[in-house]
Amino acid sequence: MAGPTVFYVPGTEATRRVSVTLCAGSLSHHQMARRATQALAELLELPLIDMPGNHLGASAEQAVFAHVLGLLLEP
């Protein structure tokens, strides 16, 4: 399953033309998903927002995750 994603190179120039918020689980510091998101944040010179839980925070900590997501979506 991870094979195609390991070698994926994002279109950074296209990504720079849209509004993007990069988030990762606050408990997933050594997991591949967070490391990939951190690398993209650095490449795009954007902050990485910590979200509750690990990369399954949306299902593991639903109420807290929903609250933080709501704050991110506010204008």
Description:
The chain has helices spanning 3-6, 12-16, 32-44, 57-60, 62-73; strands spanning 22-25, 48-51. With 75 residues, it is mostly helical. The chain has one domain.
Please give the oligomerization state of what you see: single chain
Tally the helices: 5
Principal-axes geometry comes out as globular
Along the chain, the helix and strand elements come as HHEHEHH
Structural class based on helices, strands and sheet pairing: mainly alpha
Q: Brief description of this entry?
A:
This protein is mostly helical.
What order do the helices and strands come in, and which of them pair?
Elements: H1 3-6, H2 12-16, E1 22-25, H3 32-44, E2 48-51, H4 57-60, H5 62-73
Parallel strand pairs: 1-2
Features:
single chain; 75 residues; mainly alpha; globular
